[in-house]
Design a protein that fits this description.
This protein has about 400 residues and is mainly α. The protein contains 20 helices and no strands. The chain has one domain: Growth Hormone, Chain: A (Up-down Bundle).
Length: about 400
């Protein structure tokens, strides 16, 4: 068995911050474009169905490139893959903002999805590597940083609209900020080769490995992937439809059109800030079950009684409810034995993209046939699916954190 590489406490804390900066920029990148999507839809004269299909190019690109993520990580290392992926993502998003035609917009969004997919796997793989060395759950705090980025991206987009700043100048400024921040994060991440399978299994909770996965890891991985699809459907909805719903069907104007999206990202952040503490005390399964119920109740009421502020509250409930679902899935997948480093995580992340891929065109078709309001019923339906599948996650409860290793 290969001995795991040792790092000092200062190296681990520095790497934790570095990975957090990558998560921050990853959350901010696409979120910066979200408040501008109604403008893009209007400028390109798209129907709801055409708009949903165009947005689906992002998860389609992610699905197309996701198969290569684990190979790239083993070849170049997760820090390099995450940094290059972020740079390419932001270039593609800037191109999408400046797109003069539907074809160019779809191509740019597709390429942004390709880059985002490998960044997503790389950043989560490195985050879990840091977590294993630190010996305590910190994965939700990383995803909280992603939510901070999404919140900042959405808020800055709303501010840019309110001040009359054009799409291209706005996204160009964001691109520079993101590239500088991502470069700083890259330089702080852990050095050295990626851990081998033996190290990953040794660092995982041994009681989970022996009992939770039973004897069929591929069946459990399939169940985790289905749960990830449901979680992705909930997460994606705010980014694609919240702003459009507020502006076209609820009559909200100006920067306030992004209020529901910002509320979803803000509550998403709060859910992930409190996520490690709650998961350690309630277990992943219980947290997912309660979160799914919150999504059902919050969005169900918002759809039943449509109003701007009730919609904001509904999206806030959805954001908080789904906050710990995807991090829990990634942690569970990364701890599974019998796979090369990054493979189980890559498969889960790849299949998660089905939720992002299928949801926009499905909702677009429903919206064209009825309205966006009724199309949003997909969200509480996905919440029910999370409740039903939550049992596949660990019910383990941690009573205390393992201390950070002393400096060597």
């Amino acid at each position: 068995m290969t001995t795991a590489q040792a790092f000092s406490a200062s190296q681990l804390h520095r790497a934790r911050l570095g990975v957090g900066l990558i998560f921050l920029t990853n959350g901010a990148a696409y979120a910066s474009l979200v408040p501008r999507l109604p403008e893009v839809k209007a400028d390109l004269e798209l129907t709801n169905a055409m708009f949903g299909l165009a947005i689906a190019a992002f998860p389609a690109g992610a699905f197309a490139s996701g198969l290569f993520a684990a190979v790239l990580i083993r070849r170049f290392g997760s820090p390099m893959v995450a940094w290059v992926g972020m740079a390419l993502s932001m270039i593609a998003i800037l191109a999408a903002a400046a797109a003069p035609s539907l074809a160019v917009f779809i191509t740019a969004v597709f390429l942004a999805g390709c880059s985002d997919s490998v960044t997503d796997v790389a950043q989560n793989h490195h985050a879990l590597r840091v977590q294993k060395h630190m010996g305590r759950s910190i994965i939700n705090s990383y995803h909280a940083m992603w939510s901070v980025g999404a919140l900042l991206g959405g808020a800055l987009g709303a501010a840019a609209i309110a001040t009359g700043l054009g799409r291209v100048p706005h996204l160009a400024i964001i691109a520079v900020l993101i590239l500088v921040t991502a470069t700083r994060g890259y330089r702080m991440m852990l050095p050295g080769p990626e851990p081998v399978e033996a190290e990953a299994a040794e660092a995982a909770h041994p009681e989970d490995v022996r009992t939770s996965w039973l004897r069929h890891p591929w069946l459990v991985l399939a169940a985790l992937s289905l749960l990830a699809i449901a979680g992705a459907t909930i997460e994606e909805n705010a980014g694609t439809w919240a702003t459009l719903y507020m502006s076209t069907e609820l009559g909200v104007t100006g920067g306030l059109t992004a209020a529901a999206y910002v509320a979803a990202m803000g509550s998403h952040f709060l859910g992930r800030v409190s996520g490690d503490w709650l998961v350690n005390r309630l277990g992943q399964a219980t947290m997912a079950r309660l979160g799914g119920l919150l999504v059902v109740v919050g969005m169900g009421l918002a759809i039943a009684f449509p109003s701007p502020w009730l919609t904001v509250i509904g999206y806030a409930c959805a954001g908080y409810g789904v906050a710990t679902v995807v991090p829990s899935i990634f942690e569970a997948a990364d701890a599974m034995p019998g796979f090369k480093p990054g493979t189980a995580l890559m498969v889960t992340s790849l299949l998660l993209r089905i939720g992002f891929l299928a949801s926009p065109p499905l909702l677009g078709l429903i919206a064209d046939a009825s309205s966006i309001r009724w199309a949003l019923l997909v969200v509480p339906a996905a919440g029910l699916f999370v409740v039903a599948l939550s049992g596949v996650l660990s019910s383990r409860r941690a009573t205390s954190d393992v201390p950070v290793p002393a400096s060597r």
